[in-house]
Amino acid sequence: MDLRLPSKVLEHIFSFVDSNEDRNSVSLVCKSWFETERLTRKRVFVRNCYAVTPAAVARRFPGMRSLTLKGKPHFADYNLVPDGWGGYAWPWIEAMAEKSPSLEELRLKRMVVTDECLEKIAASFKDFKVLVLTSCEGFSTDGLAAIAVACRNLTELELRECIVEDLGGDWLSYFPETLTSLVSLDFSCLDSEVKLSDLERLVSRSPNLKSLKLNRAVSLDALGSLLRLAPQLVELGTGSFSDKLDQEAVSKLAQVFTELKELKSLSGLWDVLPEYIPLLYSVCPGLTSLNLSYATVQMPDLVELLSRCSNLQKLWVMDLIEDKGLEAVASSCKELRELRVFPSGADVDETNVAMTEQGLVSVSEACPNLESVLYFCAQFTNAALATIAKTRPNLKCFRLCVIEPFAPDHKTHQPLDEGFKAIVESCKDLQRLSVSGLLTDKAFEYIGTHGKKLRMLSIAFAGDSDLMLHHLLSGCESLNKLEIRDCPFGDTALLENAAKLETMRSLWMSSCGVSFGACKLMSEKMPKLNVEVIDEHTPETRPDSSAVEKIYIYRTLAGPRLDMPEFVWTIHKNPEIGVSHLAIE
Amino acid sequence: MITELEMGKAESELELGLGLSLGGGTAAKIGKPGGGGAWGERGRLLTAKDFPSVGSKRAADSASHAGASPPRSSSQVVGWPPIGSHRMNSLAAKSAREEEEAGKKKVDDDEPKDVAKKVQVGFIKVNMDGVAIGRKVDLNAHSSYENLAQTLEDMFFRSKPGTIGLTGQFTKPLRLLDGSSEFVLTYEDKEGDWMLVGDVPWRMFTTSVKRLRVMKTSEANGLAARHQEPNERQRKQPV
């Protein structure tokens, strides 16, 4: 008896399967499930744009409505990936324009997006609704104008930390009067001033507008008039918060803020003057997310503000908050889930020394839901790490950046091995970890032994030898992304554990000691990986024993990429280079 | 528990392991004198200088929009600390503005900052020519020039077998104090002058030193001439 369910029934069942992880499992069951699943998948995530070809994706998912793509490796955020490396959105947009013209949503991260790309989107996808660009570059405000003018049903346009060639604020004026569907607009990363009257008109004809993130050029005065038009906002990113207003204007502004009954998220606040902080008090109790990481607010004012934020779940702030401020957070913000503390100076010397490891300890001890931490600090101790581990075993993401490289425990002068051991032992669900400070191979032995759920690991200036890498690659079963810079090891551990790399999304290593010969060997033996050597000096002319500057290795079904610049080498450029004389001295 | 990579036969080929076991046919490349293979040859930390046309372009481009030059951290290392470009530019613009307003506004938290800074008083910065990353050393933990020199030698030319110091070189006694090596130890005193280490009694040194620099001997000759103190040209006896 044929027990196969008819595809209509399968379709119906699968419509309840949201997560792509589940959908991926579903598609592995059998051919008919694979077929039904692929025809019904609407949201597609490609987390490495070079892992698969655009054509293959379009072919497999003809019903795709939403596409999310990531391009450059994470360390590109810190200028470690040279310009011109790749991550071009064009091939994807071109392919989708032809094969998936019903595409409605495009979310790109760390990709090169040109004005041509934006014009193509505007011209090709009739029902385009959502464009979210995070850490992208390569386009100008002209491209934005193209999107504005053509996308009749646009609901979201968000530019998060993009590098945009800013030709002026005119682009905003291209939104037609007929566009009334806007739900979210984020142009916080742009510099130029937009025409206020056009912005006001846009806001007033957008009844569904829930999220508005302005750029710095929008004055405080302008903010007031905008908020009057959009009291329904859930997310607000202010512009500059520093104009001198007279008393009447200030009280009017205060009044406007009290009308924001739905506001849950607040950001921006550039240059905020201390005397304006009380304006925010009325919205504090409702806030679940507060981003003060660009606001130069000093500790006493921060305490006043944060002690009113009893529902806060996410807090991003600078180290101006100091230990005292974090103590206030600990006592007031019991719902806190995510804390990020950024340095207020770009230099080690400029780190605020009134913020120490104690700040994080206070928050860890007092906030039971804390699960995600990013903490920049001048120095740390094993004892603090142990306390954090003990009090917060529910941590999922722990990124500690001790700004001074190789800094030991500042009380005992020991490496921070034992501290991180405590973290990985206790936090059994830890998925993301960044380590720093003085670390020996022991630390990585601990991580390999205990970090079984670890998916992403970032390491800089650490370890003593190849053992470090061996522990990680052989021990961390769930490891998906590994990024390493300036660690002293060579080829052995990498080659020993090469098979592991096929189970991971990617591996980045820069300023380490991997030789050109090892790269060649890996390329030869592991055809399902792209082994990219990123090196200013073309490695073909160098001996096998020479160390390469940067390596980026990722699994792929797409084979060698066709858009490699001169400074990126894979074996496909010189397939004739044999691996027979791999005498690595 | 594996504590050391097994040094198998001295082999001429690396083999690709399947991650099933470590050792057996592959020898550890580290620990070999003369510069540990690949690491030794390029045994220095790369800096922004190594990518004159790449890498920092993104920051430079965006900075020109932000109206400020990309900040250079004192150690001149690309991408450290790991702050995104947008944030970096914001910090650069901020410090530029603060310099403008210097003196106009008193920082409220001056007091606690000073107190906290005192905790660090024993530590001074050490930089070495050709090494991007500076270190800090605790003067209070040392009793003599010999002591200090030893620590610095360990720090920059780590002599533990199988490990690699910041410069990737192994077990070379440095002899920072007797003028016989490639490098000399110098310091900046409270007046801002750079002197060869060892010319004053230790205790006097610890009170007047601001920071240290392991300088190439070739450059240090200029130093002696500038100060025109003949005794600095000769080898120093540690006091």
Automatic annotation (TrEMBL), chain A:
Subcellular localization, as worded in the UniProt entry: Nucleus
Keywords assigned by UniProt, alphabetized: Auxin signaling pathway, Developmental protein, Nucleus, Ubl conjugation pathway
Chief location bin: nucleus
Pathway(s) the chain acts in: Protein modification; protein ubiquitination
GO cellular component terms given for this protein: nucleus; SCF ubiquitin ligase complex
One MF annotation (Gene Ontology) recorded for this entry: auxin binding
InterPro entries reported for this sequence: COI1_F-box, F-box-like_dom_sf, F-box_dom, Leu-rich_rpt_Cys-con_subtyp, LRR_dom_sf, Transp_inhibit
Keyword Nucleus (UniProt): yes
Residue ranges annotated for the F-box domain, each copy included: 1-48
Biological-process GO terms, alphabetical: auxin-activated signaling pathway; pollen maturation; SCF-dependent proteasomal ubiquitin-dependent protein catabolic process
One Pfam family here: Transp_inhibit
SUPFAM superfamilies in alphabetical order: F-box domain, RNI-like
Protein name, UniProt field: GRR1-like protein 1
Natural source organism: Raphanus sativus
Automatic annotation (TrEMBL), chain B:
GO biological process, one term: auxin-activated signaling pathway
Subcellular location per the Swiss-Prot or TrEMBL entry: Nucleus
InterPro entries in the record: AUX/IAA_dom (IPR033389), AUX_IAA (IPR003311), PB1-like (IPR053793)
GO CC, alphabetical: nucleus
Domain of life: Eukaryota
Keywords of this entry: Auxin signaling pathway, Nucleus, Repressor, Transcription, Transcription regulation
Chief site of localization: nucleus
Coiled-coil residue windows: none
Span list, region Disordered: 22-113, 220-239
Ranges annotated as biased composition (Basic and acidic residues): 102-113, 226-239
Record field: compositional bias (Gly residues): 22-40
PB1 domain segment(s): 121-217
Protein family according to the UniProt entry: Belongs to the Aux/IAA family.
Oligomeric form and interacting partners: Homodimers and heterodimers.
PANTHER family with a match to the protein in the record: AUXIN-RESPONSIVE PROTEIN IAA13, AUXIN-RESPONSIVE PROTEIN IAA17
Known function: Aux/IAA proteins are short-lived transcriptional factors that function as repressors of early auxin response genes at low auxin concentrations.
Protein name: Auxin-responsive protein
